Input
Amino acid sequence: MSRYLTHALSSMPHIAGLASANAGARSGDGLSEASRAVTPTVPSVPRRSPRRLSYPLLLALLATPAAAPAQDTPADLVDPFVGTLADFGQLSPAAVAPFGMMQLGPDTSPANHAGYDHAATTLLGFSHTRGVGVGCSGAGGDLMISLRYTAQSGPALIDKSSETARAGTYRVRYDGGIYAEMAATRGAGVLRFTLPRAGTVDLRIDPRHSYSKRLAARWANLASDDFRADLVAGTVCDQGAYHLHTASRILVNGRPIHRTLTVGANDAATLQIAGKAGDAIEIRTGMSTVDGRGAALVRDTEVGSKPFAAVAIETRRAWNRILGGVTPSGSRDQRSLFYTSLYRVMETPVAIDDPDHRHRDNKGVVQTSPDGQTRYANWSLWDNYRSQMPLLALLQPERSADIAQSLVALYADGKAQWSTPHEPFLTVRTEHAGIALLDMHRKGIAFDADAALAGMAADSHTLHRGTPDEQIEAAYDDWATAELARDLGRTDIARTFTAKAQNYRPMWRSVFQTPGADGDVVKARGLYQGTLWQYRWAPIFDLPWMTATVGREQLLGELHHFFDAGLFNMTNEPDIQVPWMFTALGQPQATANLVRTILTTPIAHPYTNNGKLPVPFVGRSFALSPQGFADGMDDDAGGMTAWYVFATLGLYPLVPGEPWYVVTTPAFKQSAIDLGNGHKLTIQRAGPAHGRMTRATLNGRSLPNFRVQHADLLLGGTLKVTTR
Output
């Protein structure tokens, strides 16, 4: 452990003792027993023991292609249960495809913001959408479906020993033996119930279920062969609304039943079905941002009449293709946590085009994507422009071009900072889209940069600049506008926005250069979910000025104090770049020590979004368990898991918008990245992970500042970090 976080723990003996106790806890795989309950104050990292499967269930699992692979593939190593316990990630084990709208999974009571809690034993049903590790009360939960025997009463209890999840699938037995399985494609999903005994079951479809405000729900058709719903709900934090259309088909043993659903209280549609033991009841659903016809086209194109197993296999292959672009060495648990994190990174944003290329924009207008392009939505940019978007630019450059063009389209009629009343899909916020665009432009990703510049310049007038953090964040946006203008030869715009970007500097000197008595108070002076000390380092784009203003040695001393005094917060984004700043200021070993500590050691986490805990939570920041994150730490649409992926690879994009990375000690002895076009980058560590960094080279060329350019990485070869 580095001396900074060691000091923070050792200054609280009772906390340090808990950290030591937690250090021995180990994670299991995605088929493990439900974790033990945690205490309200300082939870322990839960253990997960192997589950015992009943013989019939074991046969059912072995019959599915993904249940017992001959060897572990990246998709097999993904554990979707990580981060699904209470407020430790706000994630769900729902079935999902890469960058898919469909998130088909369980809703439990109690639940986290994604509708599920790993400790819950009561099942409410299964719904088709959810946000990925986002805040407020989340968003999604659309079209919740439940099935129970007519005579059954009381809560529907989950058989936790049967609960399994893999990349693209989720399975559980509940209510005394009903077996539910689900698989997802980009915009469609298959929910299959298998009955354990003969009897009449009640199928119930609730169009009003939602994690946010349900604003409208209308049945457009009630025929079981093609029942359709038009849904409107609040986006995350109920800022704006999204509009969704669904088209579903009910099959019994693979055949349509030609029935009509009945609408009752609260618009719930129901249907009674007389079944035999072993009968399979399927609900196949497609989703569209456009209309019911589009939803039916999605359903029929993406799943059609394919057997459940075929849908699951195709999605598993899709995950293997996208995850297999990175191949780390290491233990099974290390690789499992890595691929689980990369899996979360690759869930957002989501592709929203119907098979005929139609989609709605954020004004509600139907648009058609040009051939070869895909429109994306589901933004959480305040959270993930720092880490997830740069990781996609490195690992998914072709997809990033479509993501970039989708961001440019947001500016067409004036971009809202959160979301509009006519979003095509659930979203969070779109601040700092311009920084993401500059970053992608400088990494060679093609999009309409002139249109982006015009939109970014116009957007500047709408930015909030009232509180100290808002002034810094607006300055970063203005800096990005100036830099993109400079790249495009628009020196007039560049001069204007460079000056505008520097307007925050007097405020920084008066408020942040020497934080006062309220320096460690969350939300002091109107700050958003952080302290003055944490936001002090936010103008990372202006680090040369900050260094010149304070002095390099003084600034380094203040960075050391930041960690020694326990002021750092790994559970939210405002200061997650700070460990990497030591390298930029000439102390790369301090970065290596801190990053290794954060990756491997239980540490004190005292901060929440609204204040400080009376007793800090002590535990791993990232772990292979349902309690996968620190207490109160949301994944934030891949924002945190992308940080983890970068850190384990030994790279970090310190300044989004500048195309270079800090290089530090990789967690793995070797990792390989497929860069496309026949290029491959191998990242090697020569020496122990805990050793002192002595050298970094790219293809034998020394990197004296432990900094590497994006363009140089794209040429491939070997990035080597030597330690001793």
Q: What stands out?
A: The domain at 14-323 is CATH 2.70.98.10 (Beta-galactosidase; Chain A, domain 5). The first strand starts at residue 105 and ends at 109. The two ends are 16 Å apart (CA to CA).
